């Protein structure tokens, strides 16, 4: 487990956008609606917002900045759909490195944003979130937070993909270690304007979401890990940075 997390962080730290190859979905006439749906489900799990943070608010002077990476194994059917749309391009695992920043605001509100360039592809991903701590937490009480988020995919011509999500999480800190967990829902929207996609209709559906994680703070340096299941598809994330 520790080795996998280390490799995950390294892949996020050293992925270079200059190594990306253009990702083009061309063979729309050869993909079925079922295959397109499977790909959209996988994208929903991989590209929807991942908190990778405890529920406790940052506070008005608080910041959380870092480098994050997540990894989602593509299902057989989703890999087949990808290879049909983009022959010769095999992506067995979607690794998503991110530059992440969050800022605490008054009234226990936090805002966050990230940007990503997906390794070995031309795909980019950006997202933002706003959260409100219903319970701020303390010595005796856990923190409870609700969060709304949005992500948008770019870099593939004639293909549009975005997600919206809503979740609630709980966390309780112990001597710098803060385990947390949450549940929520993800709404996926996927469409193409390619003229060859005459048999493909836009996909819009929701996926249930559940996640658990652990945040470890050393005063200023911060490390967090998270396991997320969205629509029955698992994603593992790690974040290294500064939090105060």
Characterize this entry briefly.
The chain has about 240 residues and is of the alpha+beta class.
CATH C-level: Mainly Beta
What characteristic shape results from the CA principal axes?
elongated
Structural class: alpha+beta
What are the secondary-structure elements, in order, as H or E? HHEHEEEEEEEEE
Please state the second-level CATH architecture.
Beta Barrel
Q: What's the β-strand tally?
A: 10
In the CATH hierarchy, the third-tier topology is known as Porin
Largest sheet: 10 strands, antiparallel, barrel
What's the rounded overall pLDDT mean?
90
The amount of beta strand, in percent, is: over 45%
Q: Helical residue percent?
A: 10-25%
The tally of structural domains comes to 1
Descriptive report:
With 244 residues, this protein is an alpha+beta fold. It has three helices and ten strands. The chain has one domain: Porin, CATH 2.40.160. Mean pLDDT is 90; it is low at 1-19. The longest helix is centred in the N-terminal third of the chain and has 15 residues, at 33-47. A hairpin with a 3-residue loop joins strand 8 and strand 9 (221-230). A ten-stranded antiparallel barrel has the order 1-2-3-4-5-6-7-8-9-10. 41% of the residues are buried.
């Amino acid at each position: 487990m520790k080795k996998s997390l280390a490799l995950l962080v390294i892949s996020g730290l050293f992925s270079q956008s200059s190594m990306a190859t253009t990702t083009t979905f061309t063979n729309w006439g050869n993909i079925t609606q079922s295959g397109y749906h499977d790909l959209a489900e996988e994208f929903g799990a991989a590209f929807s917002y991942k908190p990778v943070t405890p529920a406790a608010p940052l506070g008005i002077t608080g910041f959380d900045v870092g480098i994050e990476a997540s990894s989602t194994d593509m299902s057989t059917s989703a890999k087949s759909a990808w290879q049909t749309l983009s022959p010769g391009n095999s992506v067995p695992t979607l690794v998503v490195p991110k530059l992440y920043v969050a800022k605490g605001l008054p009234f226990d509100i936090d805002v966050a944003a990230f940007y990503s360039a997906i390794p070995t592809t031309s795909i980019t991903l950006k997202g933002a979130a706003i959260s409100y701590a219903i319970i701020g937490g303390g010595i005796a009480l856990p923190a409870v937070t609700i969060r709304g988020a949005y992500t948008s995919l770019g870099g593939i011509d004639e293909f549009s993909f975005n997600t919206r999500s809503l979740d609630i999480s709980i966390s309780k800190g112990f001597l710098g270690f803060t385990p947390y967990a949450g549940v929520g829902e993800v709404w996926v929207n996927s469409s193409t304007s390619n003229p060859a996609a005459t048999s493909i209709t836009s996909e819009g559906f929701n996926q249930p979401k559940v996640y658990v994680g652990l945040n470890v703070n050393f005063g200023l340096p911060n490390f967090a890990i998270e396991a997320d299941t969205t629509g029955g598809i698992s994603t593992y994330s790690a974040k290294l940075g500064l939090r105060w």
